[in-house]
Protein 1
Amino acid sequence: MPVSPHSGPTLPLDAASLLRLAAQSMFDTFAQTAMGMMVVDRAHRIVWISEGYKRFLPALGHADERDFVGRRVEEVVPNTLMAQVIETGQPILVDLLTNQAGTFLVSRLPLRDAGGQVIGAMGMVLLDHPETTMQPLIGKFSRLQRDLDNARQQLAEHLTRERRPKHSIASFIGASTAAMEVKRQARRVAQTDSTVLLLGETGTGKELLAHAIHAASARAAKPFVGVNIAAVPDTLLEAEFFGVAPGAYTGADRKGRDGKFKLAHGGTLFLDEIGDMPLPLQAKLLRVLQEQEVEPLGSNQVQHVDVRVIAATSRDLAAMVRAGTFRADLYYRLNVLPIRVPPLRERLADLESLADALADDIARRSGMPHKSLAVDALELLARQPWPGNIRELRNVLEQASLMTDDLVLGARHFAAVLGTPDAISAPLPAPPAEPAASAAAPRVAGVKSLPQAVAELEAQAIREALQATGGNKLAASRLLGISRATLYEKLAS
């Protein structure tokens, strides 16, 4: 064993002791060479600052170390990214930090225990006032920052324009008693910030009414964000609503992603088919509605949101509450200002004006001339049950319009589209006489293309399924042997 002439025998160091000495030496070196240093624990609380860091305290608004140490770092150091280092475990080796104390060149490193778990972070001020000693780099950074700020502003303005309401209360067509009552209620609730619940069968115009309420409210200049709960897989709903923190899971965007609540901040969030929301997510939605706070997936940071919620459903929520498939407390929270949107069969007085407005839109989108309806066509349409309501009416009008060049659509034009005994047996005017042709000509002229025949059969099957299930789309999709999302796509097409 080697012997020192001054200090006696020297004991060999094991690897762990050597590493501890190296870590202590490195820490001491950082503390002496950096202009300032701090250590933050897992809960973001400052547990230690170096002597050099104390000289920044007055500029940060703290006269004494005791008022600084023990506080959460984001509360006392504006614009710090220490919390991000703790949450992601990723170092930020070189960065510029700017706040009321000045501009600093800083470095931030995560601290881990023996098992590799992040237990805190260490931050170092490498240089203060870098704008004087690093002028070219700072100038370039400033230009990039300005460009980034301008791009963000333009993007925000673009998104706001894109998320403006597409309809007004006047867009809800109809002068019947039922339609006028809906419009009266919509104008009334638009003057409040309370939650609105739109109740009605599929295709009655609930989404249009949600747009209209937002457009008539004080939030009209802010975003209108809609999400169809039935069209989003259950596993993605939480991320869709609340967003995702940077690096929250494998494959997640390293910059994170805002959820619908954050996108709708200051405006309105429309939750379509709220009755299809899974029970576990209902509790989280209730908390957001009560607290106006969201917590993105993979984050411990709570974000305040200012959002007015409009929900809609074609299901009987009260019955679902009794059956235990919908939370009673969420139902009461949503059912503050309920509006029942009547089905088409209860407002047949509006059929002609609705058909005329839909025909205008069909003509505009297809580039074809506007086609009006004959009296016998209106009488025929008024005899239909319309389980799909206005959406189904539009589909029927569009099919009939595109299958003929005639500018006036009579009952005969709807016979094949509707495929009902009423349509076929109704007294119809005879079609114009055709020139004589071979014996095979009438038979060939009556043959439909295969895609057309399949589409008509599919539409008829969907109508019958919806009629058999009382408009319950989930039950109808099961009856048809297709997914709920597929049924929604076919209803919207």
Protein 2
Amino acid sequence: MTFRSLLRRREIGANSYLIENGRQRIILDAGAHPKEKGHDSLPNFNSVPHDTVNSILVTHAHHDHIGALPVLQRRQPRTPVFMTEPTGEVGAAMLHNSVNVMTRQREEQGIQEYPLFTHKEIDGIKGRWNYRDLRRPFFLPESEVECTFFDAGHIIGSAGIMLRNEGKTAFYTGDVNFEPQTITREADFPTTGIDTLIIETTRGDFQRPADFSRKAEKERLALVIRETFEKGGAVMIPVFALGKSQELLVMLHELHQMDLIPNAPVFIGGLSTKMTVLYDNYASKTRRSYEGFRILEDMSTLVAPRKRRKELLYNARTIYALSSGMMSEGTTSNQFAMRFMDNPKNTIAFVGYTDPATPGYRIRHAKQGEKIKLDPQLPEVPLLCRVASFDFSAHAVREDIVSYVTKVSPRKVFLVHGDAPAQVWFHQTLSAALPQTEIISPEPGETLSLW
């Protein structure tokens, strides 16, 4: 059985991988690159012959894992797709939102190939989506390849994928977190009987402080909120609509229940609302903390969208949890920052990753008083508010990944979903920890033996 990366470059990018055993072609994930535009954002699907793939397996609904699925299904029109039910329902909403974003980018930026797919096409391809439960093995169609999904602890519905064939086993982690978050519990992965491990390396170039604890980080966020309110200001928290928004909202609920933050209204905006509705739909159906807790109904401080105007109004001593997390142009957080960041009483609190090419990164690394270009079409805005950063990543820290790989002790490890410095760190560390294991950083297009 062989492995081939369909990425165009060795990086996080548009995740997609081809598995072949001579009779079967299986594709793992079909992501779109968040930094690229048009056809350049897609994996190299042209290298896979038309209508020859037997199965498509999707780990979770983030854009860089599912964003190109309609394009892939167009090229593989008869291929069934397998995923967990939450991934399918949340993924469909994410793809519909992508159509809206691409349509707007066609109008504003003149990207003629956009949209790469349509709302009607998404509705049509869902007929070939098949939902499977965690830890319930099933055989892929017309094959002897057995597949099992395991909870990855990343976002709702996220799963690692085990493939068994001819007495050998490969396990693809997708995005994983081995620590419990607020809603999402830690990964529930197998640790024995794995010959080849295909594992993410996202945080390989990040060393967490030795004294870090998630509890202390939450308390530090509470302190920043209290200090901002004491000055008469408000707090804006840019968040990713899927996963981070829901984790943050329940975290704020916890902090309020513990009397660590005052009884302040919490506003959400953008795509976060639709994602929160879907999270609530699975409040009693998924492996999670706060089972049965429905954010839109049970969070007393949340100002539900139906109770407010579409346009967000600024109020002091208020928390605004707005997407997107990187404050990309045209998003709710970006637009709200125009009239928020020039007030020295306010605070912008970042709780996730910001790419260097985004407005969020520029704000995060700017000096007080520096003028920031939030949107190319609009004037610069001076950064006068406080800026704070927190580590609430949904990805495993590198030490936890090394611990897991060491416990599994596979014959081969394929390092994926990571930039070059991250993969270098993992390659060196794992080679020292497991001298009998072959550690591989696949190059795009390179065909490698899984066993």
Protein 3
Amino acid sequence: MAAAASSTNRPGALEITRRLAEICGPPFARFAGAADEVAGRTARWVAVPGGPRAAAEVLRLAAAHDLTVVPRGAGTKIDWGAAPEQVDIMLDTGRLAGVWHEPQGSTLAEVGAGTPLRAVQAALERAGRRLPIDAPSPGATLGGVLAADEAGPLRHRHGTPCAQLVGVRYLDAEGELVSLGEAGTALLGRAAPTGVDAAHRGAAAIFGRSDLPGLDVARLLCGSQGGLGVLVSATMRVQATPAGRVWVSRPVWTPLEVHDLVRAVLAAGLDPAAVELDLPVPVPLPRRRVHPSHPSVVGRPDHPAVTGRSTRPAAAGSLVVLLEGGPAHVAERAERLVEVLGDEAVISHSAPEWWGRYPFAPGDTALRLEVPINDLHAAVYALRDAAGGPVPVRGSAGVGTVHAALPGSLPPERVDAILAAVRSVLLARQGRCVVVSAPTPVRRAVDLWGELPTLTRLRTAKAHLDPHHRLAPGRLPGGL
């Protein structure tokens, strides 16, 4: 706290602190502490506004004093991506929370950005509904999930959270509240949207057309890490909770086997909700070589002479398919899926322990690989070859998006060499390898993003929506 206080020891600092306390209330404005950092960059103040108008006042104050602002939800992904150049005010969205919808058959719900996703699902569950979103980060807020466009296993059928977005309220860099798409009015208590014309002009400037709806601009906020606007609320698609769910799993040994199985699953027309892969690093067990004629093995039921086949090594991983729908229909599809996957497939009414979790831990270098599904095995093999051995891989094999983990102890130059090798393989396959998070020395030394075809459009969006680079400067690709 002393370090944070000294960083604000300049003319006007106490006045800014006083104004933040007036806007947010004394308990909700303070000097930042050591834990208030973004990818290793410590903030100077923390402000927790109690509503959209207060959040707008914080942004206007920042604009008046040329201060940078970085939004924060639950902080579950605060170390993802690049470190911002500077964090003057960390704008905590925790009080921008709530869920508003019509329980009787409603297909939409407006959700405050600071609402934990678990709380959203719990509130909707009481009406027999859900958001088709299952982001892996425990405790994540909806705003944080959208800011990272973070998707879990359900991305196979429903896409990323951005695909479920139909309306949004956000604050621009000047503190103007903008309402786009089918955004509701519960947070504001009034019906008149603001900023729509400006947002439509923004769409024209960014996309080169003038007839696009403002929702195109809203969807630019997905994955922008707060660098294009501060999300206040989002209106999302809602669906009925499936009455039946089963998981069908099969052990797998090689990426090529996974490739063949995924193709078979998708060709079977069983409408899976998710197709997930888990390839952990196999732990070899000590084995003693025993001759097949030795008395200790002759006559055993699993002996090759009895089974007529050679024994297979312990499974290195699992391919798991989620089926959702009516109980009878799910049961029928599960039986058909077992026929596709073979005798080793198992039906379960609960997810495996690793389901919806990342393969990396704090301190690891976390990678995301995106590639057409027919080339996923090539990407995994390339990663193994570059790393010199198996690497934990987990994710949505059915859409070609998986995550992998490299040890945090690897030196930056080694990580850089691995990235270069993998990206060279993926480039010819229209794939990408992105560094999601990494230790600070690695983050500073390597290219986190690789080649990004949309960088020009992103640069145009930043120039239009945040021309003075006050919102999370440096968090976006290209140092934007």
Protein 4
Amino acid sequence: MTGVVTVLVVVALLVAPRNRRPSSALAWILLIGFVPVVGLVLFALIGSPKLPRGRREKQQSMTALITERSRDLEDVGPEPGMPAWLPSVARLNRAVGAMPLLEDNDAHLLTTFEEQLDALVAAVRGARRYLHVEFYILSLDTTTAPFFEALDDAVQRGVTVRVLMDHMGSRKYPGYRRTRKELTRMGADWRLMLPVQPYRGRYQRPDLRNHRKLLVADGEVGFVGSLNLIDPSYDSRSNRRRGLRWQDLLAEIRGPVVHAIDALFVTDWYSETDVLLTSSQEQATAEQHQGALLAQVSPSGPAFPTENNLALFNSLMYHAERRISITSPYFVPDESLLAAITTAARRGVDVELFVGEIGDQFFVFHAQHSYYEELLAAGVRIYLYPRPAILHAKHISVDDDVAVVGSSNMDIRSFQLDLELMLMVCGRTFVDEMRAVEDEYRRVSRELTPASWSRRGVLHRTVDDFTRLTSAVQ
């Protein structure tokens, strides 16, 4: 038996470190060494963080197509009111994700579920040509029924409705079958994203998911953010008894950047169907001058060769001069991001982090606790958003003129395993709206102090440290 374990560890030493962070490789080696059978089974199921080659090749072809079609769009240079460092961050985003920084946009934040749902329904009812709907979780229930009714009406008046929903993300909720039947009944063209259906020859690592949330109507209005289209209780009786409601943030956007959001839907549609749609940019009849904001779509995920969202986050941390505000429900940074955040705090930038007082993911919730001591020691102010809300919004504001909002958490899963969408916006009006959101978070939250955090029990500390180790097994 000892010889078998030795062989397994040797194999793990040769295989696990390949294109993997040292911390992650070490975690896999330890798991295989101490629990060989379990470790090998898990490594076989989730050891590779890559999508199948065909999926990666589709992303490469779409990246090349987007790059070619936007070749004539010059990088935006320094402008009045723009931070001097923004063009370099925009060039980074374009280099890894192909999307340019675009002028003449308008964007506003929607903070409550009710206004978010109302805005989505209004956009669907106003559509004349097509609707592109993509959500990690899409569920027909009593609360979301108005949205599906609006979709049905759109189909009946001749609007082309295309819908993408993540297979594993949506299937665990009560409305999954009902949602599929209703989409089929109304005549919407819908697909599952990253389906795990080995009996149909459709399989990849089960926890590689499409976590994006977006909607585009006619290429004229778009929505991105953290919102899953499901009742804020996530259709759970237990959650309702406890009064739990997910708190999200959604951005409503108009202007040329809507075409970039639509290009991301076109990419995901092509990945699932092999059908390449005509982009909204090609269909546009006139230039869109909607506002004074600069905006750039930043896509990321295991179909890309680099961790695009991590590169964006790190760049923002190092360029910030006065203030950084971070909101992330699942905060488990890698070494580089942790260093960027703590370094910013130590060089005098006011850094604050908003996280939930309670969480819905046990391992992630405790893993993020293991970072609080180091963050507090560096001078980061941590605010706990009060129960019974689950703070699910994902956004960052930097200094006075730049904000980022979208679907990406600050954890290894979002950096490596999930397809994500972030929108970077430059403009004082939008950042002021984001500041108002953060001010409200701060008003209702409790600040965590080093003294109070040091009083947590030994069991709490032990669980935090153990879950931090498991977070590296990616």
